[in-house]
Each structure stands twice: as C-alpha cells, then as structure tokens.
Design goal:
The complex is a heterodimer of chains A (528) and B (299). By secondary structure, chain A is an alpha/beta fold. Among the domains of chain A are: 67 residues; 75 residues, no CATH class. Helix content of chain A is 34%, strand content 24%. With 299 residues, chain B is mostly helical. Chain B has a single domain, classed as ABC transporter involved in vitamin B12 uptake, BtuC (Orthogonal Bundle), CATH 1.10.3470. Chain B is built from twelve helices and no strands. In chain B, helix 1 runs parallel beside helix 6 and helix 1 runs antiparallel to helix 9. Chain B starts with a helix and ends in a 19-residue tail after the last helix. The chains are: A alpha/beta (528), B mainly alpha (299). Chain A: GO terms for molecular function: ATP binding; ATP hydrolysis activity. Chain A: InterPro entries: AAA+_ATPase (IPR003593), ABC_carbohydrate_import_ATPase (IPR050107), ABC_transporter-like_ATP-bd (IPR003439), ABC_transporter-like_CS (IPR017871), P-loop_NTPase (IPR027417). Chain A: Keywords: ATP-binding, Nucleotide-binding. Chain A: Pfam families: ABC_tran (PF00005).
Chain lengths: 528, 299
C-alpha cells in the first residue's frame, strides 16, 4: 500500500474523542427471524476520519450499514448525526441527511450510460448536458476519470466503481460508506481507491466508513477501527496502535490456523508461509485454445489454455467477470466450446454434452451454491447422491435404504452437522451446504476437482474446513483447479497460479515465484 | 397496381389497433412486466367500447369506455403482480381467460355505428400510399402524437429513466431510492389505457360491432411484435406493420383470386410471428429483469 496515505493522515483529528461525532449509532438491535443480526451495537465515527468496520461474513456489518442507509429498519436503537437525533426510514431520507453508500454489488444499471446512472435517484427534469458536465466535474475533483457517455456494461470493474463513487459524491454527502469495496478490484485499483478516499477526508472534510473483512486494507486505509463478531461490537482500536495478529484474534475470537489466516482475513504477507512445492504427476486436465460464446453472442472464453497435473492445485486468479464463471460452466458441461479441446486424463471430452464432464471424471463445486450446487428443497441425503444415482439404484428404482446408508456414511466422513439425513438442504448453514456439495463430488472419486469460490460467504470454521479438504484432495492425487477472486485463498493453496483476463490465461507462475505487484498488473490486463 | 394499393391500405388499417396496444406493451416491458394480459385488455376494451357506444349512442364515447376497461384490467394485474407479488404470467393468463369468459357471457346484440371517417382530400388520392396513410378513421391519427410522446416518456423523461432502471436492474433502482413496483404499476396502467383504446378502436372504428373473442390473439401478436422489434420502439412498430400486412394478405389473397387453403391463410400471421421470433428474438436482449417480480428485503 502506498506510504503517502499514511503521511497525509490528518494529525489529531482521528484520535481525539472530544469532537462531536459525525455519526453515532447507539444500541442498535435487529433480528431477522431467529437470527440476531445486530445485538445492541454502538458505533461512533468522528468527522474527517476513515473508520474501519471489520468483521467476518455474517458479523452484522452490512446489516448495520443498511440500517444507516435506510434499507433496513432496526428493531431498537437510535441514530444521531452531528449531535441531533435523526430517523432514516428509506434511502431517500439517508440521501437527504448526506449519507451515501457504495454497495458491494454495485447499484449500477449495465445497459444505461454513465451519466444516466449518475442521475438515477434524483428528482426533477433529466438534464443530459448538466449530468454529463457533473460527471466530468466530480471526476476531476477526486481524480476519477470516466467517459460520461460510455455504457456501464462495457466498463471494467474498476471503472464501474469510479462511476459508483461519482454517483455518491455528486450529491456531496457528508458521510460516505463503502461495503467491501476492493473485493472486485485489482491491487492497483484498490490503492487508487484509497487515495481518493484520503482526498475526500482531508481536502473535502468528509467522513468515511469502510466495511471490510480484509485486515491489510483496514490497516492501510483507516484511522480507527471497530471490530464486530456475531452481531456485536467486540473491540475498538486506533489503527496506528494495533497489528494484524491482534485484529485477526478479535475478529475471529481465537488464534488462527495456517488454513484460515489468509483466506479468512486477507492478510497475505504477515501470516502465510509459502511452502507449496509443485507436484510432477501426469496431466489430468488440459484445455487447449478454448473459445466459447454466450447465447447472446458475447465472447466468454477467448483462446483459454491450461493444464493441471495429478496432485497439483492450479489457482485461477483474476478480477471477477473475466471468464471464471464460463470456465466453471464449461467444466460442468453447461457450456459448449466453439473451438479448442478439453481433455481429461488424455482423452478429449465433448464438453457441451450434458453430463459428459462428470462421466469423464470431473467433479465440480460450483460458484453458485444455491443455483447449481444443490437442490435446496430436497433432503441432504438426496442431494448427496444427485451426481451418482447408480450407487443407490437398481434399474429404475432407488433404494431408500441404500440412499440413507450412503448419506449417513458421507455425513460422518465429511463432518456435516445436520439433524438427520432427511433434513431439507434449505435449513443448513452455508458451510454445511458447501460440505454436502464437496462430499458429493469427492464421493464420486473424481480425477479432476474444480472448486469455484469455495469459501465465499462462509464463516471461519467452514473456510478452514474447506481449505484443508481441498489441500487433502490434491495430496490424494486429484488434479485440483481452484477458481477464486480471493487472491489470498489462491496464494494459500495453489502450487501454481494462472491469471485469467478477458477469457484467456494471460500469465502463469509458480507459487514460490509470485510477485504481487506483477500479479496485480496481470489481473488488470496491463501486462501479459 | 390496384391490388398492391388495396393490400397496403388494409395492412395499415389492420395494424392500427395493434400499434396502440404495442406502444403500451413496449412501455410495460421496458419497466419489467411481460404483460400477458394485453389480450384481455384489448378484448375488454373492444367489448366495453361497443356496449358504451350503444348506451350513449356515441361511438367516440365508446372509445372512452374501452379505455376504462383496459385500465381496469391493468389495475387488477398491477395490484396482483406488483403489490402482492403473484407470478405475473399466472395473473395475466387468468385475466385473459376471465375477460374472454365474461365478454362471451355478456354478449349483447348491440350494433354500433362506425366512428366518422376522416379523410384528407387530395392526399388520400395519392396512388399506392394515399389510401393507406390518409384514409383512416380519425382516432388513428392520434398515433402521430402518441408515438413520439411514448418515445419521449421512456427515453427522455425522469419517469422513463426510473422505469427502465426498474426493468433492467430493480435491485439497483431500489438502492438508488426508486419505488420499483410503483413504476411498474404505472407502466402497466399506461399499457392498459393504450391497449384498451386499441381494442376499442378495433371494435368501434373498424368492425362496428363486437363478436365473441374478436381480438383472436392479437394481444399475443403485439407481445411478439415487441420481442421481434428487439424492445426498440421503431422495431416494435415495424413488427406491428409486418403482422398487419400478413393479416391483410390473408383477407386480400382470396379476394384477388389466389386459391389457397383457408386454414393455412388464417394461420399465416401467427406462423409469420413464430418464424420472425425464431430469427430475431435471439439477436436482441430484452430488459434484464423482464418478468421477474421484485420484492424488497435483505440480500
């Protein structure tokens, strides 16, 4: 991270507690059904500071901020701004109070132009020229260059975030909230973002709340940090007086193992010891110059080539939306190739034929757990055999006894916590659902295992489990393809890292040779 | 020459009621509702217009009755699908069946005068295109104002910007402070008014009476026209003209002495719609959230 942001921090403003807080949330409680999302949460943010809100997935950070922006109504609690009580009932009220939020999944409409998006949510006549001018003006003030007439769907994720920031900043908010802003950005883009935020606090005296589960980013970009766990605030720190280990401990509630450190908390340098050595098995999965297009004619893969050896984990790093989903679909037989070949264990596979990949020995833990990973309304036992009915069926008939026996065996083996094999999938936690998917795929004894975003949205315990299981699968001689946008996850597990950009692998390196600088530039498409 | 003139004039004449409905359907779809109940709106409009014209003795008043019927169907549809989040296709199909049943049941032997014909002297004497363009009933000329107005509403106004956002990405629209379901309800009501008018025009201005199921799937043809036109206004209108022309051929060919299987002729506009959809629908992308209900909540 750039040292300049450290130096430009306004001395005193952040740390002294005497000023009236720019925003203060007191005793906020919110319950969704049986889940207590926010439990008596108090948060106070000073004017002109960048305040970090740190916590794992599901710690209540996002809910808290949705309360502050009027998207969720709290059950109890008060919000004060600059000393006076306010009520935020809907997003318009929040905008009126000068609160603006950059959402994790952008609030942009892809098929509209930049200026149209920026003016969305305002009132009065649509003035195209004025909107264009404002995009330029706000862009120049904060160093966010973007073409007002471009269609948002044609922009890179970094550019989209600029549009999102312009959309927020043009209303000149006093408080800017960013929800996991770097999850879709390259390293360079993240740095650029943090310098824009620093400019907003020092030059424009705005207040910023930065939500994150990545320690690196909290340490580099914030003045103070509030840490949440299980819906409650567990610690408050001045960023200058803390370190990675302390933050990690507070966030997770215990010391971290090797497996969690990187994936769960996003601290690469401090905690990871690179010990992976490449295995020299035979090539089990080989993709050669694969081209594929979406149904509406958009190119998805443009000449992608890669190979994975037995016992090896190949990590596919890249910014989201560069063909990872298409690669996952291809290896699940959901997508056909236009040209190029897919070979499993040395023989070519007709990728587009339903079930072909599975029969060839490819197991897939898909990115979209709910959409294509499992059937939520079927039982755990049924989900466990979906890929492999032959083992529990004779002819046309499925044997319920065999089905349950097999389920019980897998539940035991994979440590899935579930009341009974007949429990519907829907009632399981995300971590246990993911275990079911993994158990099913591994039980089919695959030669190649594809895991896409295996730990997205899981808690630390489940992340730890998944990471270890994937590692063990490779140890057992399976060729593992790990597709992830979390660089930390890839660096923890992979023996080799391949960078995907615009539907092709643009570079490859051994784990030991990884240079973050270079990797970041590859992911951004600057060097091949 | 005569036959081309005849077919062209009849094509435009048959396309006009479709064009009114198509404007409405286009707006509704851009806001994210694939409005199946268009058929019901048109049929209801046709029936009520004839009944209204009979009661008041004025065909023009009948048009107003037709608009009211279309709006009523729209309000019911909007309430169910964008307030109570009932599946919009189920609501639409149910409404179509309901309107068909109701109108068939209530059929009265009413006769209604045709609306006065407004012809433009000299211009209507132009060969080939003259009769097509300048020899229609007066309400048809409302289209001259309505088409640019619809374009302006969707592409230039604040309302249109928000409605398009609701159709493309309701989540983003919601986060930006737009009431997604309200915009969709409003778009549906505009559609109801226009479709009701289209149906009323068909009954009062063209045919002059109401027959059971007289729209005979024209509402579905209009939905096809919007898709055929790639959700663009000009494409939608082109689609309506193509389907109107097919309908005209069906009527004109036997009259001109060509002998064709009558069943095939009756089916031809629908076949054409099917073929057109196969070739054109793939190359365009509709509004991303078309037909998906929007429910606020945490995600």
């Amino acid at each position: 991270m750039p040292p300049s942001t450290e130096q430009s921090r306004p001395a005193g403003t952040a740390v002294n507690g005497t000023a009236v807080p720019s925003v203060e949330l007191s005793h906020i409680t919110k319950r969704f059904g049986s889940v207590l999302a926010c439990d008596d949460v108090c948060l106070s943010v000073n004017p002109g500071e960048i305040h970090g809100l740190l916590g794992q997935n599901g710690a209540g950070k996002s809910t808290l901020m949705k309360i502050l922006t009027g998207l969720v109504t709290p059950d109890h609690g008060e919000i004060h701004m600059a000393g006076s009580r306010v009520s935020v009932n809907d997003p318009l009220a929040a905008a009126g109070l000068g609160i603006a939020m950059v959402h994790q999944h952008f609030s942009l409409v892809g098929r509209m132009k930049v200026w149209e998006n920026v003016t969305l949510g305002e009132r009065g006549r649509v003035d195209r020229d004025q909107a264009r001018r404002l995009v330029k003006e706000v862009g120049e003030r904060y160093g966010l260059v973007v073409d007002p007439d471009a269609h948002v769907e044609n922009l890179s994720t970094g550019e989209r975030q600029r549009v999102e920031l312009i959309k927020c900043l043009r209303r000149d908010p006093g408080l800017l909230i960013l929800d996991e802003p770097t999850s879709v950005l390259t390293l360079a883009e993240s740095r650029e973002l943090f310098s824009v935020l620093r400019r907003a606090t020092t030059d424009e005296h705005k207040t910023v709340i930065l939500i994150s589960h990545k320690l690196d980013e909290i340490l580099h970009a914030t003045d103070r940090v509030t840490i949440m766990r299980g819906g409650a605030v567990v610690a408050r720190r001045d960023t200058a007086g803390t370190d990675v280990r302390e933050l990690a401990r507070e966030m997770v509630g215990r010391e971290l193992s090797k497996w969690t450190a990187a994936s769960a908390v996003g601290a690469m340098d401090a905690l990871i010891v690179g010990e992976q050595t490449a295995a020299e098995g035979e090539v089990l999965l080989r993709l050669t110059d694969v081209h594929a297009t979406a149904r509406d004619g958009r190119p998805l893969l443009r000449g992608l080539s890669l190979q994975v050896r037995a016992g090896e984990i190949l990590g596919i790093a890249g910014v989201e939306g560069n063909g990872q989903a298409a690669l996952g679909d291809l290896l699940s037989s959901l997508l056909d190739v236009d040209s190029g070949t897919v070979e499993v264990c040395g023989s070519a596979v007709n990728a587009g034929k339903p079930g072909a990949m599975h029969r060839a020995g490819v197991g897939v833990v898909p990115e979209d757990r709910h959409g294509s990973g499992c059937v939520l309304d079927m039982s755990v036992a049924e989900n466990l055999v979906l890929a492999d009915l032959g083992e529990v069926a004779s002819g046309m008939f499925v044997s319920p006894r065999k089905l349950r026996e097999r389920a019980a065996r897998l539940i035991d083996e994979f440590d899935i916590s579930v009341p009974s094999p007949d429990t519907p999938m829907r009632l399981l936690s995300g971590g246990n659902q993911q275990k079911v998917v993994l158990a099913r795929e591994l039980a089919a004894r695959p030669k190649v295992l594809v895991v896409a975003q295996p730990t997205r949205g899981l808690d630390v315990g489940a992340i730890e489990y998944m990471t270890e299981r994937i590692y063990r699968a490779a140890q057992d001689g399976i060729a593992v393809l790990l597709i992830s946008t979390e660089l930390e996850e890839i660096l923890t597990l992979a023996h080799r890292v391949a960078v995907i950009h615009r539907g092709a692998v643009v570079g490859e390196m051994k784990r030991a040779d990884v240079d973050l600088e270079r990797l970041g530039m590859m992911m951004g498409g600057q060097i091949a | 020459m005569d036959s081309i003139e005849l077919i062209l004039a009849s094509a435009v004449r048959l396309a006009i009621p479709l064009a009114f409905a198509a404007l409405g359907e286009w707006i509704a779809e851009r806001a994210g509702t694939l409005n199946i109940s268009l058929e019901g709106m048109m049929l209801g409009g046709a029936f009520t217009a004839v009944a209204g014209a009979h009661m008041t003795g004025s065909p023009s008043a009948g048009l107003a009755f037709g608009v009211a019927a279309g709006l009523l169907v729209a309000v019911v549809h909007a309430t169910f699908s964008h307030r109570l989040s009932v599946n919009t296709y189920v609501v639409g199909l149910t409404l179509n069946v309901l309107v068909l049943g109701l109108t068939s049941f209530l059929i009265m032997r009413t006769e209604s005068r045709q609306v006065d014909k407004l012809t433009i002297p000299l211009l209507s004497d132009i060969p080939v295109v003259g009769p097509a363009l300048f020899d229609q009933r007066w309400p048809a000329y409302l289209l001259i104002g309505l088409v640019p107005a619809a374009f302006w509403l969707v592409h230039r106004s604040r309302w249109g910007l928000e409605a398009r956002a609701a159709g493309e990405n309701p989540g983003s629209a919601d986060v930006s402070g737009i009431d997604v379901n309200k915009r969709r309800r409003q778009a549906l009501m505009i559609c109801g008014v226009l479709a009701g008018f289209g149906g009323a025009y068909l009954a009062v201005a063209e045919v002059g009476t109401f027959n059971q199921n007289m729209t005979a799937g024209r509402g579905y043809m209009v939905i096809a026209a919007v898709i055929f036109g790639g959700w663009l206004l000009r494409g939608t209108l082109a689609g309506v003209l193509v389907f109107g022309a097919a309908d005209a051929m069906r009527l004109a060919l036997p009259a001109l002495g060509y002998e064709l299987n009558p069943q095939f002729l009756i089916a031809s506009p629908y076949l054409l719609a099917l073929i057109a959809m196969t070739f054109f629908a793939k190359s365009h992308r509709g509004p991303a959230a078309l037909g998906q209900p929007f429910v606020r909540g945490i995600t």
